[in-house]
Amino acid sequence: MLDRCGLLAFARCCCVGGGEMESDARVSDEPGCGGGGGAGSVVEKGGGVVARRFGWAEIESVTGGFSSRVIGQGGFSTVYLASLTSSRLGAVKVQRSSERLHRAFCQERDVLLSLRHPHVVRLLGYCDERDEGVLVFEYAPNGDLHERLHHRSGGKSRTVLPWARRMAVAFQVAMALEYLHESRDPAVIHGDIKSSNVLLDANHDAKLCDFGFAHVGFSAAVRPPSGATRASGRPVMGSPGYADPHFLRSGVATKKSDVYSFGVLLLELVTGREAICAQTGHRLTAAVGPSIGEGKLADVVDRRLGGDYDVEEAATVAALALRCVSDGTGLRPSMAEVVRELQEKTTALISAVGSKPSDKMVS
């Protein structure tokens, strides 16, 4: 039976806007995007197959004719559950038809084709035969981190996410961001790090998704999201509670913008609280920062854990999170430093994820 939690999570990750992308992958026959080849052809990078180019008839077939399999709707796209084979599911994101959105589709597709990492959601294929661009992703059956952490699963009772798994997920997302920032040339700025953009696969390992607001390069000048919404017809960057204050002031997104958002995600994992309190509207950083700074860790660690966590690890991760959310970008660590510190000073996450340095990046 299909997991509704997983479907809704993938829908949220896929219903996104667009950013400015570049790619070193070779793309076949692009109406409006350039290239050569036809439906059924493959995209190659470094001599290896990266993704498949689907025909429109194939997309109709795997989605059941775009009828009863809608699993998500966004301002820019609709997401359908796809039966890719008799034993493999996928998520198919269909962009709304417009010239601007088709350009955004080409850009998002190209950056996804250039990425290969065990903790970045995999693009399986695409279709560009019509104005509506289509992206086909791997399916993550255990939903997203936000609903898993905050029990938002359509009324389904779920156990508390254990400390070791939280640390494993933090480490995996950190490795994915280190890959984007340090192993890509030019670097990729994700632009929308948050718990709902972290999918959990069959093993509850993290898969970073939603590259619709990504930007390529050391920094990118983009319009801050004040007064705009994702449904307004123009893409914005960042999410409430996670967006870098420096970006909101300057309109310049950098790798340190991702670091800030990752710091909020770390605080979310430690405390079990959401980035913005629904009742008070207070930001998580402001709510727990003073207590962490004063060493009052027991006041902020998720009480649902029942004390079942490593106090030293929690202190390390909480302190690291505060550095990540420093107001001055120069005070924030790089993602390479974050990965190194997590790897050196925590043990639960290493035993849970079983990752070695060689597992960090796949070209």
TrEMBL record:
Compartments where located: Cell membrane
Membrane topology (UniProt): Lipid-anchor
GO CC term, one of those recorded: plasma membrane
Domain of life: Eukaryota
Alphabetized UniProt keyword annotations: ATP-binding, Cell membrane, Kinase, Lipoprotein, Membrane, Nucleotide-binding, Palmitate, Phosphoprotein, Serine/threonine-protein kinase, Stress response, Transferase, Tyrosine-protein kinase
Enzyme Commission number, as recorded: 2.7.12.1
GO function term, MF aspect, one: protein serine/threonine kinase activity
One Pfam family hit: Pkinase
Major localisation: membrane
GO biological process, one term: response to cold
InterPro entries in the cross-refs: Kinase-like_dom_sf (IPR011009), Prot_kinase_dom (IPR000719), Ser/Thr_kinase_AS (IPR008271)
Residue ranges occupied by any Protein kinase domain in the UniProt entry: 65-350
Catalytic function, reaction form: L-tyrosyl-[protein] + ATP = O-phospho-L-tyrosyl-[protein] + ADP + H(+); L-seryl-[protein] + ATP = O-phospho-L-seryl-[protein] + ADP + H(+); L-threonyl-[protein] + ATP = O-phospho-L-threonyl-[protein] + ADP + H(+)
Coiled-coil segments on the chain, per record: none
SUPFAM superfamilies: Protein kinase-like (PK-like)
Function summary: Acts probably as a dual specificity protein kinase. Regulates hydrogen peroxide (H(2)O(2)) homeostasis and improves salt tolerance by phosphorylating tyrosine residues of CATC thus activating its catalase activity. Promotes growth at the seedling stage and prevents grain yield loss under salt stress conditions.
PANTHER family, per the entry: SERINE/THREONINE-PROTEIN KINASE-LIKE PROTEIN CCR4, SERINE_THREONINE-PROTEIN KINASE-LIKE PROTEIN CCR3-RELATED
Assembly behavior: Self-interacts. Interacts with CATA, CATB and CATC at the plasma membrane.
Protein name per the record: Salt tolerance receptor-like cytoplasmic kinase 1
Protein source organism: Oryza barthii
